[in-house]
Amino acid sequence: MLETLQQLDGSLLLWIQTLHLSWLDPVVALFTSLGNAGLLWIVLSLAMVCWKPTRKAGAVALLAMVLGLLVTNVTIKPLVERARPWLDLPITPLVVEKDPHSFPSGHTCAAFAAGMIWLRALPWKWGRVLAVVLAVCMGLSRLYVGVHYPTDVLAGAVIGSLCAWMAWRLFICWEKQHHKLDGPGAVSNQ
Asked: Which pLDDT tens digits describe the chain residue by residue (190 residues)?
């Protein structure tokens, strides 16, 4: 069963590699590189912390990303040690990755950890939609540049979303303890 899943995973990634467009390659490579060490999401979250209407979204997103880092890069990657696709498949990646471990995708985890918090907490509909679009694009970019298998990205998205849920629950508990709720289950925008 696991071998069949790995074959399907590899076949799907090889098919994705046939979709490359010369003008799109540098665009996707740049976008995916902005996710190195969670940089894009950290910078955006720190900027949000500086402005009162988005402070909660930024602060809780930072917490979610820390949880995601602990789960993916500190815990799961060293335990699973799945090799990057180019080590097993005839793929030339568009970006260089120093970490030889592929499962789960840390870039995708960080994107979904931040994006799912922003989906919940940003005050504008366009910002909430953009948060999800950017998270999905980060996951897809990891496949396009050839540094992750589809299941790596799927696992990163699930873990990031779960870390966002946990960070949100911790925030709600903190708010309750500090009497900042405006009613049953409602969270203030402060």
From this structure: 778 888 999 999 999 999 999 999 999 999 999 999 899 999 999 999 999 999 999 999 999 999 999 999 999 999 999 999 999 899 999 999 988 999 999 999 999 999 999 999 999 999 999 999 999 999 999 999 999 999 999 999 999 999 999 999 999 999 888 775 555 555 554 4
pTM of the model: 0.90
Range of the domain at 175: 41-181
Does the residue 32 lie in any domain?
Answer: no
Structural domains of the chain, count: 1
In a domain, 164, yes or no: yes
Q: Is residue 14 part of a domain?
A: no
Burial of 150 (C-beta count, 10 Å sphere; 0-12/13-18/19+)? buried
CA 12/CA 37 separation, integer angstroms: 26
